Automatic annotation (TrEMBL):
<keyword id="KW-0997">Cell inner membrane</keyword>
<keyword id="KW-0813">Transport</keyword>
<dbReference type="Pfam" id="PF08402">
    <property type="entry name" value="TOBE_2"/>
</dbReference>
<keyword id="KW-0547">Nucleotide-binding</keyword>
<dbReference type="InterPro" id="IPR003439">
    <property type="entry name" value="ABC_transporter-like_ATP-bd"/>
</dbReference>
<keyword id="KW-0406">Ion transport</keyword>
<keyword id="KW-0410">Iron transport</keyword>
<dbReference type="InterPro" id="IPR003593">
    <property type="entry name" value="AAA+_ATPase"/>
</dbReference>
<dbReference type="InterPro" id="IPR015853">
    <property type="entry name" value="ABC_transpr_FbpC"/>
</dbReference>
<protein>
    <submittedName>
        <fullName>ABC transporter ATP-binding protein</fullName>
    </submittedName>
</protein>
<dbReference type="InterPro" id="IPR027417">
    <property type="entry name" value="P-loop_NTPase"/>
</dbReference>
<dbReference type="InterPro" id="IPR050093">
    <property type="entry name" value="ABC_SmlMolc_Importer"/>
</dbReference>
<dbReference type="InterPro" id="IPR013611">
    <property type="entry name" value="Transp-assoc_OB_typ2"/>
</dbReference>
<dbReference type="Pfam" id="PF00005">
    <property type="entry name" value="ABC_tran"/>
</dbReference>
<dbReference type="InterPro" id="IPR017871">
    <property type="entry name" value="ABC_transporter-like_CS"/>
</dbReference>
<dbReference type="InterPro" id="IPR008995">
    <property type="entry name" value="Mo/tungstate-bd_C_term_dom"/>
</dbReference>
<keyword id="KW-1278">Translocase</keyword>
């Protein structure tokens, strides 16, 4: 792997420390997302990689080339890094073709511009100016311009933030496909978990200036490193448990652990995603009785908030998704069973207000 490698990175704005001992590896050809709440330092990290902000210490290498260490600060224009900013930042007075070809050697310009416009599916628009393009087309041209000089690494700073929801979803899939076709190594920053899950081979979850976990989306979703990561990736029911050999003893009975045997005999919480809860009007051997306190339609299903009976010693609410045609009425008592395997987490809590989603049972 060459790709991007960042070690022991510290950075500040004035006297305020923003990045602390940050580590990140992105293999060559991988699409990575840095996911974190507003203000955690995502843009500062991108600006350091791009060469626009000097870190206090640490190393940054791209494609095996050291761009930052104690003695080195390669200037931005010599880094061979492409950037796609939030607003595209196209040159308004230049045509689409001139934007994409900007800075390319004259000899290869025409051919490379045609190739890039083809890649983003906009080869009919070469003579237009940016104000004659839709928001989505402008972002595709910004992508074509960033890829044209064959950068070693592409950085995308919330590139879909200004677009409406439907276009956002369409474009992020399209951009991911385009980048894979181009074999690019890319880092996208976002605070939108759906964007990260849809776009990335790797998600690096950032909190307080550090990467707290970096893994494939599926692994992060099902095996988060802590309760904060669990909530960052989606709604999470965090249920008190006692860990035994290969299972957890919970209010929902014995549930198998995702990774098999655990050698701890500790108090823990286990992660139950909302889709692991099944609702019934009749009780079973290990069901939790709970009252519907709220329901919301989500198109393909309903999201329910449920208040468990106090005898189960679960803090409220539990969150469940149900595909029924109509939601159970508010106030109705249901019986909830848990399915599938569970992942244990240390009960030390990252405060829910520091992550976008939160449901703690
Ligand atoms: N030029 C600057 N001078 C002083 N402080 C700054 C500067 N730029 C950013 N900061 C501060 O550094 C911290 C990290 O900012 P940064 O923009 O990197 O976060 P972010 O995760 O990208 O946030 P957002 O998602 O809102 O864009 C914030 O507390 C911010 O106020």
């Amino acid at each position: 792997m060459s790709g991007l490698s960042i070690s022991a990175l510290h950075a500040a704005h004035g006297h305020t420390t923003v990045l602390r001992d940050l580590e990140l590896r992105v293999p060559n050809g991988a699409l990575a997302c840095v996911l974190g709440p507003s203000g955690c330092g995502k843009s500062t990290l991108l600006r350091i990689i791009a060469g626009f902000h000097r870190p206090a210490s640490g190393t940054v290498t791209v494609g095996g080339r050291t761009l930052n260490d104690d003695h080195t600060q390669v200037p931005a224009e010599r880094r061979r890094i492409g950037c796609v900013p939030q607003d595209g930042a196209l040159f308004p007075h230049l045509s689409v073709a001139a934007n994409v070809g900007f800075g390319l050697p004259r000899a290869e310009r025409r051919e490379r511009v045609a190739e890039m416009l083809d890649l983003v599916g906009l080869n009919g628009l070469a003579d237009r100016h940016p104000h004659q393009l839709s928001g989505g087309q402008q972002q595709r041209i910004a992508l074509a311009r960033a890829l044209a000089p064959r950068p070693e690494l592409l950085l995308l700073d919330e590139p879909f933030a200004a677009l409406d929801a439907a276009l956002r979803a369409e474009l992020r899939t399209e951009v991911a496909t385009t980048l894979r076709r181009a074999g690019a190594t890319a880092v996208l920053v976002t605070h939108d978990v759906d964007e990260a899950l849809a776009f990335a081979d790797l998600i690096a979850v950032m909190r307080d200036g550090r990467i707290v976990q970096c893994d494939a989306p599926h692994a992060l979703y099902h095996r988060p490193a802590d309760t904060g990561v669990a909530r960052t990736l989606g709604e999470a029911n965090l249920v008190p448990a006692k860990l035994a050999a290969d299972h957890a003893i919970t209010a929902f009975g014995e549930l198998p652990l995702t990774d098999g045997a655990s050698d701890t005999d500790e108090d823990a919480v286990v992660l139950l995603r909302p889709h692991q809860l099944r609702l019934s009007t009749t009780s079973g051997p290990h069901t939790v009785e709970a009252r519907v306190v709220n329901s919301g339609f989500r198109g393909h299903d309903y999201r329910l908030e449920l208040a468990p009976d106090p005898r189960h010693e679960l803090a409220t609410p539990l969150i469940a998704y149900t595909p029924a045609d109509a939601p159970p009425p508010t106030g109705e008592t249901l019986h909830i069973a848990a399915h599938g395997t569970v992942h244990p987490l240390a009960p030390d809590q990252v405060p829910p207000d520091q992550v976008p989603n939160s449901a703690t049972a």
